[in-house]
Amino acid sequence: xxxxxxxxxxxxxxxxxxxxxxxxxxxxxxxxxxxxxxxxxxxxxxxxxxxxxxxxxxxxxxxxxxxxxxxxxxxxxxxxxxxxxxxxxxxxxxxxxxxxxxxxxxxxxxxxxxxxxxxxxxxxxxxxxxxxxxxxxxxxxxxxxxxxxxxxxxxxxxxxxxxxxxxxxxxxxxxxxxxxxxxxxxxxxxxxxxxxxxxxxxxxxxxxxxxxxxxxxxxxxxxxxxxxxxxxxxxxxxxxxxxxxxxxxxxxxxxxxxxxxxxxxxxxxxxxxxxxxxxxxxxxxxxxxxxxxxxxxxxxxxxxxxxxxxxxxxxxxxxxxxxxxxxxxxxxxxxxxx
Length: 338
Ligand code: FA5
Known about the structure:
Blueprint: H1 2-18, H2 22-33, H3 38-44, H4 54-90, H5 109-123, E1 127-128, E2 134-136, H6 137-140, E3 165-167, H7 173-181, E4 186-195, E5 206-216, H8 221-236, E6 242-249, E7 252-261, E8 278-287, H9 289-295, E9 303-310, H10 311-319, H11 332-335
Parallel strand pairs: 1-4
Antiparallel strand pairs: 2-3, 4-5, 5-9, 6-7, 7-8, 8-9
Helix pairs in contact: 1-4, 2-4, 5-8, 5-10, 7-9
């Protein structure tokens, strides 16, 4: 009886010696030690061994099983470590090679400047409102005191969608939407894209504006001047001079163009300021009482100021850029500089 066990032992040792691979060793593990393996079957058949031979038979079976189990374990770990050795040699990693560079994008310069401007105004207590880019003729023109056929409409070359709808030509319609929604006091900035049929070195058909306005019982031109001074000194530096020139917008009365001392030549005269020492930066004024009337506010009670500026224009002056079209060309050599 025990002779058969020794022959199994010899055969198993022989097979382990000749295995040649980790996979073959794992296969032998199943063959000898698995649920239906050789030794498991032998243990199950112990009952059929005569009683007086059983203890000795069982002891030898156990010894051989443990011996083969240990042998398989040793071989398995040897194959595993030589496999690891092979992998390390064939797939070695050179930790001195510099990592591959993944370029990280950043915000467009006009977005950066817009965010900076919004931060300045929110720190002064202004809330941010947005309007739609497709606007009705009423909000874009009529409610801003530009009735149909009014010559002031020609100041903004308009993309008409149909007789009643336009691509908004400025952010001023947001004034009306906000007045219809809230009662004063109002302190609002409204950034957004606007469209005009315009194209040259300083004009593009789609550009960004920021509208700002404040409405309450006693708002005056000096409030406008104070707010714009804080804003422009923050963006262009505290030494920047500011001047108001009389102008005309149908929705403000009085109206003004606001200039700053040229940031390029500091006022001594250059191409950017056309040798005047000043550059125009925004349009502004006191909200026309007729606009209040149309929006449903009492013009005898409320006063307010409004201003509108071009974000591209401010970005150009801030960074000394001389062609506005660069903002839309997506040339990485240009964009990477900011
Ligand atoms: C307006 O659009 C008025 N709504 C501004 C305003 C608001 C006045 C509230 C009074 C009260 P204007 O047409 O000047 O004004 O445009 C304002 C700014 O937009 C300009 O100073 C300029 O910086 C910019 N801008 C105008 N047209 C273009 C264009 N085609 N491309 C790029 N920027 C432009």
